[in-house]
Amino acid sequence: MDETHDPHFGEPVLAVLEGLPDATVATGPDGRIVFVNELAAELFGYTRDELAGRPVATLWPERMRKRYTRNMELYFATEHPLRFSTEVWGVRSDGTEFVGDMSWGIVETANGPLLLAIGRDISERRAAEKRLRAVAALGERALAGAGRDELTGTAAERLREALPVRHAELRLADDDVRLLDEAAGPVELRLELDAGDELVASFDRPVDAEETAFARAIATTLAAALTRLRTEERMRHDALHDPLTGLANRTLLRDRLTQALARSAREQLPTGVLFIDLDDFKDVNDRFGHAAGDTVLAALASRLMAAVRPADTVARLGGDEFVVVCEDVDCDAATALGGRMEEAIREPLALDGIEYRLTASIGIALGDGDADGLLARADAAVYRAKAAGRGRVEVSCA
Fold first, then answer.
1. What is the per-residue pLDDT across 42-51, written as a single tens digit (0 to 9) for each?
2. Three-state DSSP class for residue 319
3. CB burial of residue 260 (10 Å; 0-12, 13-18, 19+)
4. CATH code, 3-121
């Protein structure tokens, strides 16, 4: 098609259409193309001569042709057609689709009306906007308090939607997070993040700078969110656990005991409290120093945890005093547990070349009343054990 002799446009108009920075297509009322500029031919993957006289529907995806044809007929049928901008889908000669930002309108020429479409491919812009929204959405989920599984699942989904990724893992300074676990692709990408973190991913093809930046943004956002979650978990743990032994502290003990007693009241099953007071532990600190004493307490805490049932709670009240809360026990079971605890403490403990031999006075109380009352009864039983010679178990089952 020789655009310089197009019957619809004079040379001045043709010069303007050719000089536009966007693709331009003109279509007659019969739906056939009468003009395309060079940018349009390049956009759709044809030569200009190949498009001349073709149905304009050639440039539309099959799924959109019926709708676009109906709209085109409406434009031509409207006496004073509106000119407007919208997003439309196009299809290239190789079958790939793209979305365009197009301005449409009817123009009158010496040879009749034409539908003039002027626009550009905005697929990359939309993809970039989608990637930005994906990163923002992940950040919002993190700020809203989403958990680890939800965050990692969302990150993996966003990566898969936007990139040809097969395998991806986030190697954090203190943990590894597997995001996608398909067979590795031929192209590997390693991105160093903040604080020594790293994203390792593989793709079906090389990724460009914008795609790489997106992968980095997702990984950085996820790494920061997971770090925050771990920090919060540590803070919650530290607030409820003894820093020396890792056992429950007074606050957590009170909460567990209150819950146990509430279940006891509902189910008519007694709760047991074992109060453990090491005998003459001051001698360990005086002879070997407080650092050695702390090491002994930490080792004993592990022994106590190994002696109880999985559902029981072992707490350190402070100093050399411990408390165990156990649910659904009778007097015999609680007494047997107390014996196991006393034996675990009595077993010689060798640490740093020193052998420690310890005993404990243990008081046990059972009931379904208030927490303070049950603890007081167990404490009173400890005093009876000490008065009776220490290194023994006293039980209050009433």
1. 999 999 999 9
2. coil
3. buried
4. 3.30.450.20
